[in-house]
Amino acid sequence: MPPISRRSLLKHATLTGMTLPLFSLARLGRAAASDKLRLAGIGVGGMGGADLASLSSHPGVEVVALVDVDAGNLAAAGELHKGARRFTDFRTLFDQFGGSFDAVHVSTPDHTHAPAAMTALNHGKHVYCQKPLTHDVHEARQLRAVAAASPTLVTQMGTQIHSNTQYRTAVKLVQSGIIGKVREAHSWSSKTWGYDGPQPESGPVPTTLDWNLWLGTAAERPFCPGQYHPGNWRRWYDFGGGTMGDMAIHILDPVFSALALGPARSLISKSSAPPADSFGMQNQTRFTFPAGKYTTDGFVLTWYDGGKMPDTSAWPLDGADGKRMGLPDQGSIFLGEKGAILLPHVAMPTLLPLKDFAETKIEAAPDGNHYHLFVDACLGGAPTTCGFNYAGPLTETVLLGTLANRFPGDELRWQPAAMTIPNHDKANALLRARYRKGFEVDNLS
After folding, report:
1. How much is the average pLDDT of 143-149?
2. Is residue 47 part of a domain?
3. Residues paired with 342 in a beta bridge
4. What is the three-class DSSP state of 213?
5. Counting beta carbons within 10 angstroms of the beta carbon of residue 78, is it exposed (0 to 12), middle (13 to 18) or buried (19 or more)?
6. For residue 441, is pLDDT > 50?
7. Alpha-carbon gap, residue 32 to 439, rounded angstroms
8. Contact 303, 285 (CB under 8 A)
9. In the list 144, 232, 233, 428, which could disulfide-bond 239, CB 3.0-4.6 Å?
10. Mean pLDDT of 408-420
């Protein structure tokens, strides 16, 4: 889909009754009070702590606020950033401290990505948000639209490898035409972010955790030790995206970049039936796309996870020694009209068949620091390449895949302009979550 202009967004808001806060539009592009980017971290434990460390390593960043629902995470981050104000609820951050920072990074469980990121956009803040950008398709569409209507705000999704030399080189190689137009691509991960055990048992909430705020927009449920916080939330529909949400957003990134893919026309899952509340342990999802600049008509992309792997018998995988090459645990292959490109996650691409490209030198693309590129853009440098204009559509496609895996064997016919799956009522109903009362967010709820 083409980018959504500010004018078209405002027209859409008028027709649908969607509210775009006027204070946000009036404050877009506010300059920092100093030569520093004043950063607030939302979610500062685990990956959030790593994100905070990477962003704050830029000499132009000053960490001024920290937010986490776990007092332990907050205390640990506070020891590293002693001058930063501390908050448990990100909404309080904006209400009480909103005039004192310029940008946020959002590194929470997936179901809180969009609520926190949209609140930041609504308040005129630059946003770095961990992958996948959102938890449902509606959220991805709305974040993209509001970011497009706020052109002075910088956005970036946290797919760090997007800026690394390995993925950049693969994109450059595919688009050079060396293997011709691509007729199919396959991507896979050996991870198994699902759950197929007994119903989890509830238990006491840790004294350091505000469980109500951790749940946020999600429906109320009891705390279950070892299942949700701090690490296993990815397994559950209400909070994460399973293996596909976790890894396809990374591994399909160079596929989408290299092939300039738009929306899929249809998708179908050949996965096993998943548990009621969790993701299946093994999935296989097939996406069909229209022809594009770098793809043939009827181009097909297939995703595999949890140990399911593609049939490689027709692939040009003969090694220099004449033996068949094995596949990496995670990666992609582009099968083109004149050859193939194998791209491990994360390593440099290989041109195949090896004998045909033995004399071909692959020129590496420059490496980039994904975090620092975001900061540079906020401070007036070059635009980011993984902003919400790109991350939104990529996330939509990945989330449609996780949706298809809930209905194995059923073809889902995607209508992107209307944001509907008209041939499947059950799948269509899951494109948008209903937020819990008290946790509504302007432009999402």
Report:
1. 98
2. yes
3. 333, 350
4. helix
5. middle
6. yes
7. 29
8. yes
9. 233
10. 98
Distance (Å, rounded) from C-alpha 325 to C-alpha 353?
Answer: 11
209-239 in b/e form (b: 16+ CB < 10 A) is bebebbbbbbeeeebeeebbbeebbbbbbbb
Residues β-bridged to residue 351: 341
Q: Which tokens in the block code for residue 255?
A: 């596929």
In a domain? residue 398: no
Q: What is the CA radius of gyration of the chain?
A: 22
Kindly state whether residue 213 falls inside one of the protein's structural domains.
no
Confidence of residue 31 (pLDDT cuts 50, 70, 90): very low
Give the dihedral sign, CA 186/192/198/204: negative
Could you tell me the pLDDT band of residue 34, with boundaries at 50, 70 and 90? Answer: low
- CATH code of residue 311: 3.30.360.10
Distances (CA, A) of 440 to 114, 149, 216, 218: 11, 21, 9, 11
Q: CB of 237 within 8 A of CB of 279?
A: yes
What pLDDT does 19 receive? Answer: 42
Tokens of 121: 């956009």
User: Which range has the worst mean pLDDT, 41-45, 128-132, 154-158, 320-324?
Assistant: 320-324
Contact 307, 192 (CB under 8 A): yes
Residues 232, 218: Cα–Cα separation, whole Å: 16
Q: Residue 14: which pLDDT band, with cuts at 50, 70 and 90?
A: very low
pLDDT (tens digit per residue) in 116-139: 999 999 999 999 999 999 999 999
> How many independent structural domains does the chain possess?
2
- Whether 41 and 142 map to the same domain: the answer is yes
By CB atoms closer than 10 A (0-12, 13-18, 19+), residue 339 is middle
The pLDDT assigned to 18 comes to 43
The secondary structure of 329-359 as a DSSP string is SSEEEEEESS-EEEEETTS--EEESTTTSTT
Helix (H) or strand (E) holding 106: strand 103-106
- For residue 323, the enclosing domain spans 165-194+242-366
Q: What percent of the chain has pLDDT over 90?
A: 89
